[in-house]
Amino acid sequence: MAKGYWIANVTVTDEENYPEYLKAGAPVYEKYGARFVVRGGRCQGMEGSTHPRNVVVEFKDYETAVEAYNSEEYQIAKALRNKYADSNFLIVEGFE
């Protein structure tokens, strides 16, 4: 079964309060068995537009990734992310 991934490209606009989003998201990652593959770190934009922070979160499958995103808990965290950062966010199915 192919894994599912959240891929987020983020520009934090409020560094002081952004940790509220990180804290709110933590229970979601635990509940849905998420594993961070990329969380910040160095990046270099080679083509197209980029954000300075990139995140890849792995889930056991695509359906779990979608369920986690749609969960009530993550919707609360997402509201904080949208308040404190500009981002692109997608869910993709991995290659088996």
Q: Name the structural class.
A: alpha+beta
Distance linking N and C termini: 7 Å
The strand line-up of the biggest sheet is 2-3-1-4
> Beta fraction of the residues?
25-35%
Q: In total, how many beta strands?
A: 4
The largest pleated sheet is described as: 4 strands, antiparallel
What is the C-alpha radius of gyration, as a whole number of Å? Answer: 13 Å
Please state the average pLDDT score. Answer: 96
CATH T-level fold name: Alpha-Beta Plaits
- Helix tally equals 3
The CATH architecture can be given as: 2-Layer Sandwich
The parts where pLDDT drops under 50 for at least 5 residues are none
Query: How many separate structural domains?
Result: 1
Helix content: 25-40%
Name of the CATH class: Alpha Beta
Secondary-structure element string: EHEEHHE
Q: What is the 3D form?
A: globular
Task: Describe the protein's topology.
Blueprint: E1 4-12, H1 18-31, E2 35-39, E3 53-59, H2 62-70, H3 72-84, E4 85-93
Antiparallel strand pairs: 1-3, 1-4, 2-3
Helix pairs in contact: 1-3
What are its keywords?
single chain; 96 residues; alpha+beta; Alpha-Beta Plaits; four-stranded antiparallel β-sheet; 3 helices; 38% helix
Gist of the model:
The protein is of the alpha+beta class and about 100 residues long. The chain has helices at about 20-30, 60-70, 70-85, and strands spanning about 5-10, 35-40, 55-60, 85-95.
